[in-house]
Amino acid sequence: MEKIVLPDIKDLHLIDVYVKHGGYTAAKKAFGQSPDDIIDQVKKSGLRGRGGAAFSAGLKWSFMPKTTDKPKYLCVNGDESEPGSFKDRQIFEFNPHQMIEGAVIASYAIGAKIAYVYIRGEYHKWIKLLQKAIDDAYAHGYLGEKMKEKFGTDFYCDMYIHKGAGAYICGEESALMNSIEGKRGYPRVKPPFPPQNGLWGNPTTINNVETITNVPPIINKGWAWFANIGEPKHPGTILFGVSGHVNKPGVYELPTGTLLTDIIYKYAGGVPGNKKILCVIPGGSSMPPLRGEQLKGVKMDAESLKAAGSAIGTGGIMVMDEDTDLLKVLARIAKFYHHESCGQCTPCREGTGWMERILKRIIRGDGSSKDLDLLISVANNIEGNTICALGEAAAWPVKYMVQRFRDYFEERVNKEVILPVPNKVHSMRKTAFPLAEIKN
Ligand SMILES: Cc1cc2nc3c(=O)[nH]c(=O)nc-3n(C[C@H](O)[C@H](O)[C@H](O)COP(=O)(O)O)c2cc1C
Predict the structure, then answer these.
(1) Is the pTM for the entire model greater than 0.90?
(2) Whether the CB of 210 sits within 6 Å of ligand 1
(3) Same-domain pairing of 96 and 128
């Protein structure tokens, strides 16, 4: 199976090795064509965003205004803060030049002179590695003004890493732009969308790291080559990050449409102890979970997962075996979204905390069946009522896990509640405060 984003080439992160294997020839080819031709090829290739929403990359690029005096920008989104998602940093580490080349081609296609790569601040290692690759690209004339000489073109662009302060919300494209502008990472109301009103009010395109890294091979090998890989409606490969109860967790680049069970059993080595699977979240922690019995025949691409009642998200597959305490898992997920809610929208700010508190109440043994309905009701009131999709990200795991595992949760809320025995507390106090001794 051909790998597009992370080919098995030793030391590909080094610029000489990348160039030896055809690196930066796609950029040269692109500069020989018009920006519209490039957009057309990316559109025809069927490349869809790998950052969560699976939106057509070429179509997104075509939204950028063609006649404007304003500066235009490209943002490459490497915030990657969703639990269960850990694939973009593999690109920074093992194939950074293909991402840089993809960003150069995208910048040319949309007319941007500056590309920002947004990386979560804690990812020190990957920031360092990417910065080294960017420095090397500048030194060799693949970035900056030297590009004119290297490629014999009038076009050139610059690339900067922008470090985030470590917030999931800053991966949301409009919060990301606010963060780059030096403001608090609050999502913006849309419309206007980034191509109309992006960075500092100028036309901006935002794409995920993996999306951008797919671009050079599309230009070099042709859109038809790419369109024929995997599922026709969502072609190419995806970096599937497999975590949880599998023998070989890791990132696997496989064609779209690969069976979820093949990824778990064939590639990730199956479940330790051959236990049954209770639950799988197929696209990062914000996506609707699937029951173990639901997995047969489920293919990993946007359309197939939608039909199966979930979504491809970031391709982060989280596997939970039959001994997993789903209540604790869900409470932990809810805690994350409560913590990461920016607080701008009341349903998300209040609802995420409410869901966390209800789940903790159930864990304490104080929950009832009504709490399960309440969880779904709170989730429904968040979903669709917020400025950005963090609302859905918080609501979906709760709503769908409770709905799909109702039997499991009913059993937990109806269990006999064992309250602490009062005289035990009394005896503990006696030990802690030896009153008789004090009196003496
Ligand atoms: C709360 C939240 C966090 C997000 N985090 C990321 C992220 O870390 N990386 C990413 O590429 N997209 C993230 N997205 C999606 C982006 O808003 C945007 O759709 C994406 O970067 C577009 O790139 P693509 O079209 O190439 O997928 C996030 C969305 C939301 C609502």
Answers:
(1) yes
(2) no
(3) yes
